[in-house]
Structures are given as structure tokens and as C-alpha cells.
Specification:
This protein has 258 residues and is an all-beta fold. It has strands spanning 23-36, 41-54, 57-62, 68-73, 77-92, 96-113, 117-134, 139-154, 157-172, 178-191, 195-207, 213-220, 227-233, 238-244, 249-256. A hairpin with a 5-residue loop joins strand 11 (195-207) and strand 12 (213-220).
């Protein structure tokens, strides 16, 4: 099937305003780090704070057709942001590596939505952690976790959005020329009107008889999952993205390097 070509699209129209805006930004950034090579331990703390002053305010309005209209209002607006990040890494016995990262951010600003001025406060918490265990002999394991928690408060209204993602990859070195790889992923979302969970499982077999040739047999989407969901929080909205997936399939391939 040959995909269609869009010559021109009017889904998004933009007109530059006549107002010349002036920004004034006051920001503070600081970083503190520690590393110990002998103990394979690394730590870092990041801090940031900013005060952005603008001569304009962006007006958001949803019309009867569901279109989002953004307009520029000649009115001063101030956006304040504060956040910090903690990043930790530890290696154990040369075969196990762990990483942990936490980020917090808070923003305060005034928005004009549907003919009404609102003072909004947003807070986001992000956690990322990974564990990598590889014996370099017969077994390897990699686990990744991502968790996002977002809240927005404006005009006596509170919006929450949670997103949790797990990824697990296991490699089995069955011989010097063969390897079996198993992959599993789970994504969970929870917001004001949406709740869902998706699973994905894959299995691959690799055979490398020489340095130049690799044979691969792949069993993709074993559970035959139809779609995958992700979500993202905004000041006054929750965006949910749905990805359609290929059905369960089995493929065989060969890679040759010159």
C-alpha cells in the first residue's frame, strides 16, 4: 500500500501577532556531584529556579467544533519554575549496575482559558531506575522502570495523570554461537477519565556461525496486543496517545557484514 501524500494541511493555522514581546528571565542553576571510582559509586544533585516575565499572555479557547484556539493578549504574565534532580549510580562486583534518577518540578503561572483568568500550579514527579546484570557467560538481565506523576491545580480544579512503564530484557547465551532473548513490557496509565494497561512480549533467537553472518528468528507480539497507550499531563489537559501495533508475527532474517 502506497501511503498518501499530503500536499497542504489546514489542521494547524498560525498568524504571527503584531505585538513585539519582551522576555526577562532570572535563573539560578547549581550542581553538586560526587564520584568514587574504586567503589563504583556516582551521585549528582541538580537544582534550578527561574522567574520568566513576559509582556503577553496566551489565551486558550476550545470552540464548539473541539478545536483549540490560541490567541495573544497584551497583558503581562510571569512564569515561575522550581525543580531539582537526584541521580545515583552504583556498580557491584563488575557484573551488576544500578541507576536511580528522581526529578521534581513545580511551575506557577497565570493562564487565560475560555474567557477566564486562572492561576495554575503544576507539579511533576519523575522516577527512572534501571538494573543491569550480565555475567558475560550464560545470562544477562536488564530491567527499566519509568514512573511519571503529574498534578495541575487551577480554578479549584485538580487534574492528575499517572504513567508507569516496565521493561525487562533477558538474554540466555546457550552457546558460543547462539543466544535467546526474551523481552516483556508493561505500560499503565491512570488519569481523570482514562485507565488502561498493556502488555507486550517478544522472543528472539540469534545464531552467529561467523563474524560476518548472523541469523535471526523473531516471534513478535506473542500476546497479539492490538494497541499500546501512553499519556502526558498538561496545565489544563491530559493527552493520551494510542499506538496501533502489528499483529502477532514470526520472521526470519540474515545479516551479513562486509
Amino acid at each position: 500500500i502506497y501511503p498518501g501524500v499530503i500536499l497542504q494541511s489546514f489542521n494547524s493555522l498560525t498568524q504571527n501577532p503584531e505585538i513585539i514581546n519582551q522576555y526577562k528571565i532570572n535563573a539560578i542553576n547549581a550542581q553538586l556531584s560526587y564520584s568514587n571510582i574504586f567503589k563504583s559509586f556516582f551521585a549528582r544533585l541538580l537544582f534550578q529556579s527561574s522567574d520568566n516575565q513576559s509582556q503577553i499572555t496566551i489565551s486558550n479557547e476550545v470552540d464548539n467544533n473541539g478545536f483549540l484556539i490560541n490567541r495573544i493578549i497584551n497583558r503581562p504574565n510571569t512564569v515561575k519554575n522550581f525543580g531539582y534532580t537526584i541521580d545515583l549510580s552504583k556498580g557491584i562486583l563488575g557484573v551488576l549496575n544500578t541507576n536511580f534518577k528522581y526529578n521534581f518540578n513545580q511551575g506557577e503561572n497565570q493562564l487565560y482559558f475560555n474567557q477566564q483568568f486562572m492561576q495554575s500550579i503544576t507539579k511533576s514527579h519523575r522516577i527512572e531506575t534501571s538494573i543491569n546484570w550480565d555475567t558475560s557467560k550464560w545470562f544477562g538481565l536488564n530491567y527499566n522502570l519509568k514512573f511519571n506523576y503529574f498534578t495541575s491545580n487551577f480554578s479549584n480544579t485538580k487534574v492528575n495523570n499517572n504513567f508507569l512503564n516496565h521493561k525487562l530484557t533477558a538474554d540466555f547465551y546457550t552457546s558460543s554461537t547462539t543466544r535467546i532473548q526474551l523481552f516483556a513490557e508493561n505500560a499503565q496509565i491512570k488519569s481523570l477519565h482514562t485507565k488502561g494497561s498493556n502488555y507486550m512480549f517478544n522472543a528472539d533467537f540469534y545464531y552467529k556461525p561467523s563474524k560476518k553472518i548472523i541469523y535471526k528468528a523473531a516471534f513478535t507480539n506473542i500476546l497479539n496486543t492490538n494497541h499500546f497507550l501512553t499519556s502526558m499531563g498538561g496545565i489544563n489537559s491530559i493527552s493520551v496517545s494510542q499506538f496501533e501495533l502489528r499483529p502477532r508475527q514470526f520472521t526470519v532474517g540474515i545479516t551479513y557484514s562486509l
